[in-house]
Amino acid sequence: xxxxxxxxxxxxxxxxxxxxxxxxxxxxxxxxxxxxxxxxxxxxxxxxxxxxxxxxxxxxxxxxxxxxxxxxxxxxxxxxxxxxxxxxxxxxxxxxxxxxxxxxxxxxxxxxxxxxxxxxxxxxxxxxxxxxxxxxxxxxxxxxxxxxxxxxxxxxxxxxxxxxxxxxxxxxxxxxxxxxxxxxxxxxxxxxxxxxxxxxxxxxxxxxxxxxxxxxxxxxxxxxx
Length: 225
Known about the structure:
- This protein is mostly helical.
- The protein has helices spanning 4-38, 54-85, 91-120, 131-167, 172-187, 198-215.
- It has 6 helices and no strands.
- The longest helix has 37 residues, at 131-167.
- The model is unreliable at 1-11, 42-49 and 219-225 (pLDDT under 50).
């Protein structure tokens, strides 16, 4: 009985955390879509009345409510990936992988806080927000998300793809998709609207793969003795 418990935990932990990765991907994708709808990219001074639009304001508030939970599930997703890779991971790449994931989470929270500041600048009655605070908050939120968070996501994806390729824990198609995702996040996401959605899509693929592999109950090495 004592010998079965560790093996059961080793099997169940990646599956449970892999499910958390699926939840993260769905939450992040939903939040990204709602932010895009709530703060249209490229709106200049004429876009200031967006915060006076109750529908877009509600969408933005919903996105901001989802971001903290997406960050929590993302940490579980990182744990799922590290558990899937195992103890033989490359220490250098593993450090880059973990560091970029943590910086991405912090930057995503910063972008959400900036978007929340845009909402906080909304004035009651029929008054429009001042163009200065509106433009600053909008540009700050989008810069954090598309310029910094997505580039950290690119480092996260590329490091995992290289680790998966070296150790053979990821199939070749997923490795290729990961590298293409990293290139998209690195060079395209800041210029092409909605391109950042490739990150939650990739995260969903990785999580489904972890769940599938864990569900096969692969044979494990017998314990010594």
